[in-house]
Amino acid sequence: MKNGVGVAQNIVLFGGTSDIGQAILRRIIKPGVARVALVSRNLEAAASFASELEEAFPDVEIHHVRYDAADASSMAHVVTEIVSEIGDIDVAVVAQGVLNEGMDYYSDPTGLITLCDVNFTSTMVLLYALSQQMKQQGYGKTVLLSSVAGERVRKGNPAYGATKAGIDGFALALDHELVGTGASILVVRPGFVTTKMTTGMKKAPFSTDAESVAKITEAGIASGKKVVWAPGLLRWMFLILKNVPLPVWRKLPL
Question: What CATH number should be reported for the domain holding residue 32?
Answer without folding.
Answer: 3.40.50.720
